[in-house]
Design brief:
Blueprint (H helix, E strand, L loop, with lengths): L5 E5 L2 H12 L5 E8 L5 H11 L4 E7 L3 H7 L10 E7 L5 H9 L1 E8 L19 H10 L5 H7 E6 L11 E3 L4 H4 L10 E2 L5 E4 L5 E4 L4 E2 L5 H6 L5 E7 L7 H14 L4 E3 L12 E2 L6 H11 L3 E7 L3 H6 L5 E7 L8 H12 L4 E3 L2
Parallel strand pairs: 1-2, 1-4, 2-3, 4-5, 5-6, 6-7, 12-13, 12-15, 13-14, 15-16, 16-17
Antiparallel strand pairs: 8-11, 9-10, 9-17
Helix pairs in contact: 1-2
Length: 361
């Protein structure tokens, strides 16, 4: 097996960034297969494909058609440029039928998984179980997909994760820190307070205590008073809201985002790649980078700036909560979508990390 290459399959820009790190840790050659749905094909996907492919023996960028039948007819093309056999296959979205198709058509001596996002942290999510959809089961048989989600979980000899210490889809888990090296050398500065602009919210602190924060009161900060005293207050603060289309209706998602912009006096908006709507009331941040990389660049470029990041249940927010001069705040609206068991699990992880959770009553 020593002369065989490894294969790594990616479905998102974050997965491509993880792929880059995994490839850098190994001396063996890698082939990269980046899968992208046609409606998601954009500069961000292309940028991270180029980033990851720089360390590859061979790289393929495969567009997945929106049409169901074109997708089915195009499945064999996913194998173009790939070897028939690999030493180790790496994959994150093991529930995805396109990923499953490739893994069922090649041979590999070992399988290793890595994080798809926060779905890895939700027991019972699609990353934990086979699809119960009868049509999907029929199509799997027609496609020759024998190894499905639960089989691939069992086959995984280790799982590479951004969230060590949390239960995941496979064991053992191996910690993966994408930004620790990049954070080194960033200037530290004191952290100012967060100002509430209106209304009353309920803050659930790390220990589960509930505090009410009234008009213009400050939320507790992550750093200690000693650290704040030792570091001067930044010249300016940038408040950024991370977009997340979690509600089924585009208008409802836009309305929710606009209400958060007003409530917390947030001036900037970082849209999610899947958004099909426009949010008014803030300056859009247009960047080919995922938010984690964008924030790192901004921290380097603006040493006298403190960043406040507001989000709902964003993977990116979890990833940046420990960045210097960065305060992350999770907002939990009253809508039922934010109180399901799966979403509750993500808020639980955020509380464990010390991220304040603001309940909007």
């Amino acid at each position: 097996m020593a002369d065989l290459a490894n294969l790594i399959i990616c479905l998102t820009p974050l997965q491509a960034l993880i792929a880059q790190r995994l490839m850098a840790q190994r001396e063996q050659p890698f082939d990269l297969l980046m899968l992208c749905y046609e409606d998601a094909d954009n500069a961000k996907f292309r940028h991270y494909f180029q980033v990851a492919s720089a360390g590859c023996r061979h790289a393929e960028y495969a567009l997945i058609p929106q049409s169901k039948w074109r997708r089915e007819l195009g499945l064999p093309r996913l194998l173009c440029g790939l070897d028939k056999e690999y030493a180790t296959a790496f994959a994150a979205s093991i529930d995805n039928p396109n990923v499953q198709y490739v893994l069922n058509r090649i041979r590999f001596a070992a399988l290793e998984t890595f994080d798809d996002g926060t779905g890895n942290l939700i027991p019972g999510s699609v990353l934990y179980r086979n699809s119960s959809n009868r049509q999907r089961q029929l199509m799997n048989r027609l496609r020759g997909i024998r190894l499905q989600t639960e089989d691939l979980r069992r086959l995984s000899r280790r799982h590479h994760t951004l969230y060590p210490g949390q239960p995941n889809i496979a064991a053992p888990t191996v910690p993966l820190d994408l930004w620790a090296a990049a954070e080194q050398g960033l200037p530290e500065r004191g952290q100012g307070g967060l100002r509430q602009s209106e209304g009353r919210e309920v803050l659930r602190s790390e220990n589960g205590a509930v505090n009410e924060c009234g008009l213009n009161e400050r939320l507790p900060e992550k750093n200690t008073a000693d650290v704040a005293a030792a570091n001067p207050t930044p010249v300016r603060t940038r408040r950024i809201l991370l977009g997340q289309p979690l509600l089924p209706n585009a208008a409802d998602n836009a309305a929710l985002a606009e209400s958060l912009l007003r409530r917390f006096e947030i001036g900037e908006y970082f849209p999610h790649p899947r958004e099909t709507y426009r949010v008014s009331g803030a300056e859009y941040i247009a960047s080919p980078l995922i938010f984690e990389d964008y924030l790192l660049e901004s921290l380097r470029r603006e040493p006298d700036t403190r960043f406040e990041v507001y989000h709902l249940v964003s993977t990116a927010a979890l990833n940046v909560h420990a960045f210097p001069r960065t305060a992350v705040y999770a907002v939990r609206p009253a809508e039922a979508a934010f109180h399901t068991l799966g979403v509750a699990r993500i808020y639980e992880v955020m509380a464990q990390l010390g991220i304040p959770i603001i309940d909007i009553e």
